[in-house]
Amino acid sequence: MLVKLEDPSLLSRVIEVISELVTEVRIKISEFGMSITAIDPANVAMVRFRLPKSAFSQFETGDEVLGINLDNLKRILKRCNTGTPLILEKRENCLEIQIQDRIRRNFSLNLIEVEGQEKEMPNLDYSSMVEISSMDLISSIEDCSVVSDACSFVINNGGFIIESRGLNSARSAFSKDEAKIEAEDCKSKYSLEYLQKFMKGAKICDKTILNFANDHPLRIDLKTEHMELNFLLAPRVETED
User: Distance (Å, rounded) from C-alpha 81 to C-alpha 134?
Assistant: First the structure.
């Protein structure tokens, strides 16, 4: 297996986001490209990342599964400068990483056994879809984190609301002028601890797509020309105060 990225900055940013949820992953390399699917230890969140074959300038591989410690990989990827080509090559039980800078630098990362059953992201039915500016979403999530540890996504009369309510409150409201909203009235509450981690990935894209329904898992889709990053987050179901 040997693959080459001309600019690994996107991979580096995504690996940093995924490492907020899990410490070890299986990286799959196939004729379609590179992919990661993982569930956090608390079984609250799921992440899927896809980097298609077209994103690589060199791609020589059969089907491979690489067990990787993300903290170790993240530290190595941080040694890459923007626009510096990166080569990943599997040799026996190691992943050889070459940074093709002015001086070629080489790292060897030991491959590990990653336990856990392989799962695919489920296809769920949603009553609501919102496509929103990533910066607006990030700002609203940060507002809510100031006053609470959870926030609600609400569809009401065709508008989209992100709010936290307790002793203190925060609220952001979006009409169809500010976001693309195709939705039925619904409400679901989610952990801000996880949403804040996801928002580090939202910075990669201009737009973020949200799918949710009453007391239903939230799906977040982030896409660029050469990448797809998806999150699934279980709802926080509580009795009414």
Answer: 25
